[in-house]
Design a protein that fits this description.
By secondary structure, this protein is mostly helical. It is 80% helix and 0% strand. The chain has one domain.
Length: 176
Amino acid sequence: MGQAQDELRSGYLGGAPGVFVSGLAWLAADVAWYIWGGFYAYVAIFIGGMLIFPLALLIARAFRAPKVSKGNPLSLLGFEATFPLFAGLLIAFGLLPASETFAFAALAIVVGARYFVFATLYRDRLYWALGGAIFLIGTGFAIQAEALPVHITLAVGSVELLFGAWLFTRWNAAIA
C-alpha cells in the first residue's frame, strides 16, 4: 500500500493543487454571495467543485508530476470519496431556501469529513488536521451562524488556501 500512496503523492503533488483549487472555489463562492446572494454562491461552488480535479491535474502536470498508473488501487478510493460530495451538494441545495448559511455549513461538514480519506490516499496525516478544521468550521457555523462577521465560504476557502500552501511546501521540501 505504501508504494501506491507514494505514487499518488508524487503524481498529485501531495494533493496540494486540489486543496488550493478547492479553496479558490470557496472564495469565488464567497464573492458571489456578497455580490449576488446565496444561490449564486451555490452555483459558484458547484461549478468550482466540478473543476477541482481537472485544474489540479493541470497544475500537477505544469510541475511535471509523473502520471499515476492506471493500476494504482488507491485511485479507486479517491474516485469513491467523490460521491459524498455529490450528496453534500444535494443536501446544501435542499437547505438553501431555508438557510443559506446552514446549507454551506452542511456542505463544509461533508467536505471536511471527506478530507480524512486523503490521509490514507497520500499517507499524510496533515489531512486529518485539514478535515478536522473544515468539519469544525462547518459545525460552528451550523450551530452559531453569526459567530463571525464573515460568510462560511470565506472561512473554508481561507483554511484550504493555507493548508494547500502548507501541503505544497511540504511536498516541495520532500523532493528537494
